[in-house]
Write a structure and sequence with these properties.
Mean pLDDT: 73
CATH class of the largest domain: Alpha Beta
Bound molecules: guanosine-5'-triphosphate, magnesium ion
Largest sheet: 7 strands, antiparallel
Oligomer: single chain
CATH superfamily of the largest domain: ATPase, nucleotide binding domain
Low-confidence stretches: 378-393, 427-431, 596-615, 622-650, 662-701, 707-720, 731-739, 744-755
Number of helices: 19
Number of domains: 6
Helix content: 10-25%
Strand content: 25-35%
Radius of gyration: 28 Å
CATH architecture of the largest domain: 2-Layer Sandwich
Length: about 750
């Protein structure tokens, strides 16, 4: 029956509490929220697909209801990957809010047509003209607006008829099959079915998707068995395996591709990490099973360390969701949490909303701080209601001054408005390890498997990868295995004592990167008022840079001791500026240190190699010529993302790459016998997140006894050069111990026997 029907996938998305679910209920007669958490909290968590047939026009509508709360942003992100049409639900009383802007931007990027459904028009405060004005500001006047009310049943017919005039050309029937995993449904007797949206081609039962994975059967959402399904349809697949794919996984070219690499789901970064302790091993195992089930409802990650489970979530409400599910079954203790990475803005901004008036100030390397009438208050979380806080929750690199505000909702909206006016800058999450790989090119299977971001790939065979801390060991072992030990791995350890500022100078855009001891690199971008080639405006530009950099560097200005400048069109200009700004005693550029052999020929500045100056040395380094190429990869990854300005990513990343190049001397080479080095460096640099146990199945220093055997995973070729009986020394193993000595018992299997411990 479905075959005769035209299919249209309509995404309902909008800010939290705008009235999306209510609108769908009015159309279909079914309220989409069905999870306990959703009903208790009155907010949608996961993506729902509700079908609605328009018999007259032979149209099957797949209505996709999504979450508005930013902690569950993954659900609209997932919907955007498959939607033919976006119904942007905007509350008539609140107008445009943070999520509204984000959705309009994404729909534009993905060429998805938009209809605006203004809800709550029954309320006296509803104001559709304000929404029209907001649309004008966005240059999106063409979007049609329909006024509705779920309470008074207004505008539904008009909305449906507007939706039904859209058609989507399905031209890819002959193309290869591709689909996206939108959800899971457990069915008694059958197990887990996956809900897939077919992106192209056709699918039939008993079809081999990969050598291991086959479709056993296909069902419609109404649970009817189907002989085939094609592009645009949402159906359920029963596979020959118990599916463990993450939500948002796409299948194409015969492969399942992780959402972290491919889609805008990748934007949904974990922003907080919670540590949960469970002492009973049986319950620990059970909780992992619960987490696996929950991952089928909302995307999140976790990793374990002994009896602690570390949950990576987008925000507190998402954690609440997981916690509530766990609480019913298991006793556990929350032993801590930390914010991952920092997101901040680029300049001071003010916002007002109803009774509230606030000012937000970027604080690049601090977590969120708040003051009300000049009194410091602890955390914004304490004063903001969960559903209202929208993006403000995640703008950790901020200070917020609250001048007035009767309630939390007003304050949150005012913050969101202030933030909306300025650029948002994201900074690298610090848990990740950045490595460089040489001598081996076939790293892509591992990139998928271990959810790795490709930061940079050179034309030769060098890769810069950002590897999740918790995946590092497995990744390392696998790489050694598949490359048969050929791959050369370098680990980036940022120079511990230097504070480094790097800049990628363009003629109009400057990217800055600051690297400090024990800190993640911070990025800054300056869009110059005019082109630096215009000599007469140099003084104006220098004043602009002065303000921007002072804002970015704050107290760190005085402790910077190295500057790396990319050899670009603006390098002479920025060097001049730095000499003044940092008050560097420097005649004839004698403070500039360069290793550029070609620089003199290019007619640039004369350079003298000198060892040291106080304060900072300026290093002129070869610019990455392939910034564009890096950008190509980076935009898919998450190192940095920009919200409004296109130039930001390009230059800021280049600055980071320049800084890394500048730190070339600090790159540590891991040998192929890395037991010692791998351990040392990981423990030294990432202490707390790696334990010896996860590498060697030893839980404690005390567990290591002379005569005991230490087995490193069979798959590892780390020590393939070792011969039986070779002596292995483990140095600097904890402060109380000088050395461990071991003998290898079997070179390839790397079984090491501990011989002695020097204390
Ligand atoms: N007065 C009035 N209230 C409405 C209308 N539509 C929804 N509401 C109320 O607004 C609140 C949120 O409605 P939902 O439909 O759950 O909103 P939502 O957009 O799905 O919310 P999230 O799932 O949290 O993003 C509920 O209390 C509804 O009763 C409307 O047309 N008029
Ligand atoms: Mg809802």
């Amino acid at each position: 029956m479905e075959q005769k029907y035209r299919v249209l996938n309509v995404l309902f998305a909008g800010h939290a509490q705008a009235g999306k679910s209510s609108l769908i209920e009015l159309i279909v007669g079914i309220f989409p929220d069905n999870l306990d958490f959703e009903l208790v909290h009155g907010t949608t968590v996961s993506l729902k697909v509700i079908q609605f047939e328009l018999k007259k026009s032979k149209l099957l509508l797949n209505l996709l209801d999504t979450a508005g709360h930013s902690d569950f942003k993954a659900s609209p992100a997932l919907g955007l990957e498959f939607a033919d049409l976006l119904v942007l639900v905007v509350s008539g009383t609140d107008g445009f809010q943070a999520r509204t802007f984000w959705l309009i931007e994404k729909a534009k990027e993905k060429n998805i047509p938009v209809i605006i459904a203004v809800t709550k028009m029954d309320l006296p405060a509803a104001n559709v003209n304000k929404i029209k004005k907001d649309l004008e500001k966005l240059n999106a006047r063409m979007i049609s607006i329909i006024q509705t009310s779920a309470k008074k049943n207004i505008g539904i017919e008009e909305l449906i008829s507007k939706i039904s005039i859209y058609t989507k050309h399905r031209k890819k029937i002959e193309e290869d099959l591709s689909f996206i995993i939108l959800g899971y449904e457990y069915r008694k007797g059958l197990g887990n079915l996956i809900n897939v949206g077919i992106l192209s081609g056709e699918i039939e039962p008993k079809r081999a998707l990969t050598p291991e994975v086959k479709t056993k059967a296909i069902y419609s959402l109404k649970k009817k068995p189907l002989n085939r399904a094609s592009e645009g349809e949402i159906v359920q697949l029963l596979l020959n395996i118990d599916p463990k794919f993450n939500l948002g996984t796409k299948y194409y070219h015969g492969k399942f591709i992780s959402p972290k690499i491919e889609s805008i789901m990748a934007e949904v970064l974990p922003r907080k990490e919670f540590f949960i302790e469970i002492n009973d091993p049986r319950k620990f195992k059970l909780s992992l099973e619960i987490f696996e089930k929950l991952k089928k409802i909302i995307p999140f990650d976790y990793y374990t360390e002994r009896n602690v489970i570390n949950l990576l979530v987008v925000g507190d409400l998402q954690f609440e969701f997981i916690k509530e599910r766990l609480e019913d079954l298991i006793d556990f203790k929350i032993i801590g949490s930390k914010i991952k990475g920092i997101i901040t803005i680029n300049k001071v901004s003010k916002g007002t909303h109803k009774s509230a008036s606030v000012r937000v100030v970027p604080r690049c390397r601090n977590a969120l701080t708040v003051s009300r009438e000049n009194n410091q208050i602890t955390k914004l979380y304490d004063i903001l209601a969960a559903t209202a806080a929208c993006e403000a929750f995640h703008l950790d690199g901020l200070h917020v001054d609250i001048y007035s505000g009767k309630n939390e909702d007003h304050i949150a909206q005012a913050i969101a408005k202030a933030v909306d006016k300025v650029k948002i800058i994201k900074i690298v999450p610090y848990q990740d390890i950045i490595i460089k790989i040489e001598n081996y090119t076939d790293v892509f299977p591992l990139i998928e498997k271990y959810n790795i971001e490709v930061l940079f790939q050179s034309q030769t065979d060098t890769f810069f990868l950002q590897v999740k801390n918790e995946n590092f060991e497995n990744f390392f072992n696998s790489l050694m295995k598949i490359s048969e030990g050929k791959a050369e791995i370098h680990l980036f350890k940022f120079e511990q004592n230097d504070v480094i500022l790097a800049v990628d100078p363009g003629t109009r855009h400057f990217g800055f990167c600051l690297i400090e001891k024990g800190e993640m690199p911070s990025l800054w971008f300056v869009n110059m008022k005019t082109n630096i080639e215009n000599l007469r405006s140099h003084n104006v530009l220098k004043r602009q840079l002065d303000i921007e950099l002072t804002n970015f560097l704050r107290n760190e200005k005085d402790i910077i001791n190295k500057i790396f400048v990319g050899n670009g069109p603006g390098s002479d200009f920025i060097i001049d500026f730095f000499i003044e700004y940092f008050n560097i005693p420097c005649d004839d550029y004698s403070c500039v240190i360069t290793d550029l052999s070609t620089h003199e020929e290019s007619g640039g500045l004369k350079t003298v190699v000198k060892s040291r100056f106080e304060p900072p040395d300026i290093f002129l380094v070869d610019e990455f010529k392939t910034t564009k190429e890096a950008l190509f990869h980076l935009q898919k990854g998450e190192l940095v993302s920009e919200v409004r300005s296109k130039g930001f990513v390009d230059h800021a990343i280049a600055a980071l790459l320049i800084a890394k190049r500048g730190l070339k001397g600090e790159v540590i080479k891991l040998e192929k016998k890395p037991l010692k080095q791998l351990y040392d460096y990981i423990v030294e640099n990432y202490a707390g997140s790696y334990s010896f146990s996860s590498i060697h199945n030893v839980n404690d220093l005390n567990d290591l006894k002379p005569g005991m055997y230490l087995r490193v995973k069979d798959s590892s070729r780390l020590d393939s050069n070792l011969k039986d009986g070779d002596i292995v020394s483990f140095s600097r193993f904890g402060s109380n111990y000088k050395n461990f000595l071991g003998t290898t018992l079997s070179g390839n299997k790397i079984i090491v026997k501990f011989d002695s411990i020097e204390i």
